[in-house]
Amino acid sequence: MKAVDTAKRNKHYRCLEYDHDQTGDICLVACGMERCDPGVNFGPEVRDCYHLHAILSGSGTLRAGGKVFHPHFGQMFLLKDNEEVQYTADVENPWRYCWVTYNGTDARKISEEIGFTEGVYCLDTSADARDFYEMVRRMHEKPEMNYINDLRRRGILLEFLALAMETSEAGQTKKVVRREYSAEVYVQRAINFIDMNYATIRVSDIVEYIGFTRSYFTTIFRKHTGVSPQEYLLQCRFKNGCRLLAETDYPVQKIAEQVGYEDPLAFSKAFKKIYKMSPTAYREQH
């Protein structure tokens, strides 16, 4: 059930609010921004959904989970689903913040991945608070309730949550890349990426796409394929080069370009080293 605000809103309050009973993995329920009046108090009350606040300036007091916190500029704080909460803006330096309200089957998991685990309601963030504000502002540019704008706002919500996760206190202390899938899955994704983009990528692009260090990625790739990423990339280029030589009348220069070689001489030299014949001779035999 939607909570009823216990504080009177001022002229600096802006909020878009939608259905609290949406279904899905992650849904935007509301988003807004506010410059709080000095000492303004909300609650105590039980909130539905998850309300993630990014503090743009100021400070205040948050009472949640039987604890007292003092969220301030450079931090985020979360009001959790179905928990009683009370929060009060500072008298001398009240909060200015923006927020997103979300629910869905993945809402709790995402909140915990950001760092809001059991008993945690306030986190430091290394993000520029203006980035959070800009996302909320973009949501408010398309307030109409229709499917197209729902998709737009949901996309921005995911950006907001991703930034919170990437820059949170918890995220910054995790030095090891999150590996949520098996090594085989990452290797297969790399293979698919190479197969689709072999003519325009380098190994560094593959490593960036997967998100591991180059040395670790090379190790798991070689373990599962028997070759390095560079070797597989070259194999993919020349396999497709052979196909084009056998199945088309394209000149060698065009085929070289299509498989990632700007210099046809370099393509011919590398081809001959592998197949012990020139591209033209290969075409004649096939």
Briefly summarize what is shown.
With 286 residues, the protein is α+β, with helices and mostly antiparallel strands.
Keywords:
alpha+beta, single chain, 286 residues, four-stranded antiparallel β-sheet
What do you see in this structure?
By secondary structure, the chain is of the alpha+beta class. The chain is 44% helix and 21% strand. The protein has 11 helices and 10 strands. The chain has helices spanning 107-114, 129-141, 147-167, 169-173, 183-197, 203-210, 214-225, 229-247, 252-258, 264-275, 279-285; strands at 14-17, 27-35, 41-47, 50-57, 60-64, 67-69, 75-79, 83-89, 96-103, 122-124. It has a 6-stranded antiparallel sheet with strand order 1-2-9-4-7-10, with helices on one face. It has a 4-stranded antiparallel sheet with strand order 3-8-5-6, with no helix packed on it.
Spatial arrangement of strands, main beta sheet = 1-2-9-4-7-10
- Structural shape: elongated
Q: Any low-confidence stretches, pLDDT <50, length ≥5?
A: none
- The ordered string of helix (H) and strand (E) elements is EEEEEEEEEHEHHHHHHHHHH
The amount of helix comes to: 40-55%
Helices and strands: which structural class?
A: alpha+beta
